[in-house]
Amino acid sequence: MAGSLLAHKGQRILNLSFDELFLVLDGIFDCCTNRKTASTGDEMLAPSSHLLQKRQEAIEVHSAMKLQREDFECSLCTLQGRKDKLKQKEEHMKDFQQKFDNFLKDNEAKRCRVMRKVNQERELTNQKQADLLALQEEMKSLVKERDKLMKRVEKNAIYLRFLDKVVQASPQSINNQASEAPSQFQEVRQLKSCYYSLKLMSEDLLQITQQNQESIEKSWAQLVHFTKQGNDTILHYNNTLSQLQSQLDKAREEGMIWVTRESRWVHIQNTAAKKTLLLGTIKMATLNLYQSVCKRAKDTGDAPIAPEDTLQQLEKIQSFLSDLISMWEEVSRSHLLLPGHR
Question: Which residues contact 24 (CB under 8 A, 6 or more apart)?
Fold first, then answer.
């Protein structure tokens, strides 16, 4: 513990500069001097002796610290060498661990591939076994179907023999009746072909007969429909003709009424024309009077009246005549009041 503290303090002293170190040594020397002065009492040293003593003590302390620093540097070099070795060992261990991890990963990948392959082969084996069982079942069903068909062939062999007898017993063709030719059908296949041809011909004839019957029924229905439609059309036209005749009679009656109304309308138009002419004459006369009044009347500052406003013109003329009559009455009254007319 003391060695570690000393090493720590020595490291701190080595990190100081020369001036700082000198100040520290001065402080140490002061402490030592104070202690020495306290122990010796009133004994006093000369300043030069005191300075020499401090320098001697500083040299001794510096030598001791130099030795301690060398020891410390040796320890640091040793520790650095051990640290480098430990780092190399650590790198080696990391490489070894990486290789070991890679080895484990490769083994795990190989194991997974092997397991996958085993599982695939197991699934393929199970699939093949299932396919084999399905094929065995299918083979059993095919064998059963074959046995059933064989039984059916044996059962229907009687029809083949019957057809052979029919072929042998078939009559000769019409062209070969005089010669000693064989029968008309040489094989059962020819008989079957003739049968199917006759069957198809019969079906075609039956279909044609049904189509003709349907066509006849359709034509008959169309005839009935057209006959009924023609009768309905004739009846409709008769009704329309009677309605048009009644409308014609009514139109003639209304025509007579309209002739009467037209004559009345002509009379009204003539009367209206006369009254319009009279109204125009009145408006012209009123306008002339209004213009005369405007010329004779004094300027009153009123706005002029439009030529079309006859009522305003009449009011203006009436106002002018009223003023004129009142003026005439005043003149007559004043004339009567004169001395020569009493």
Answer: 13, 16
Q: Does pLDDT of 40 surpass 60?
A: no
Ramachandran bin of 171, using left for φ above 0, alpha for ψ from -120 to 50, beta for the remaining angles: beta
DSSP 173-238: PGGGTTTT---S-SSHHHHHHHHHHHHHHHHHHHHHHHHHHHHHHHHHHHHHHHHHHHHHHHHHHH
Please report which helix (H) or strand (E) contains residue 20, including its range: helix 18-40
Mean pLDDT, residues 312-338 taken together? 80
Q: Which residues contact 45 (CB under 8 A, 6 or more apart)?
A: 53
Q: Output the pTM of the full model.
A: 0.25
Q: How far is CA 175 from the centre of its chain?
A: 83
Q: How far from the centroid of its chain's Cα atoms is residue 225's Cα? A: 58
d(CA 224, CA 218) in angstroms, rounded, equals: 10
CB 290 within 8 A of CB 317: yes
Q: How far apart are CA 339 and CA 227, in angstroms?
A: 123
Residues 51/22, Cβ–Cβ less than 8 Å: no
Residue 10 has pLDDT above 80, yes or no: no
pLDDT recorded at residue 181 = 44
Mean pLDDT across 245-262: 84
Report in angstroms the alpha-carbon separations of 39 from 1, 25, 43, 305.
Answer: 31, 21, 9, 147
Over residues 137-153, the pLDDT tens digits come to 999 999 999 999 988 88
H/E run at residue 158: helix 47-169
Asked whether the predicted pLDDT for residue 312 surpasses 70, the reply is: yes
